[in-house]
Design a protein that fits this description.
The longest helix has 21 residues. By secondary structure, the protein is mainly alpha-helical. It contains two helices and two strands. Strands 1-2 form a two-stranded antiparallel sheet. About 45% of the residues lie in helices and about 10% in strands.
Amino acid sequence: MDCVTKKVCFETEDKALEALINNRIQFNAGPNNVYFCIDCGHYHLTSMGNEHKILNDPEVKKRIDRERNSGFWQGKVRR
């Protein structure tokens, strides 16, 4: 999957949303939404516009915090 935008392509909106959540877990910043690209017919992450409502879902927020904390402690144990 290639796109003239040179962005990572996701076949479905669900896959793009999962990547958005994982990005938030890993970096706590960056992209805040997804969009459908008319150039390639796939979805991309973007930092433009409003934050996607999924990032404010209480269950998703719990998951982000839980997995971020898990990653923090895993890093501490490995050292």
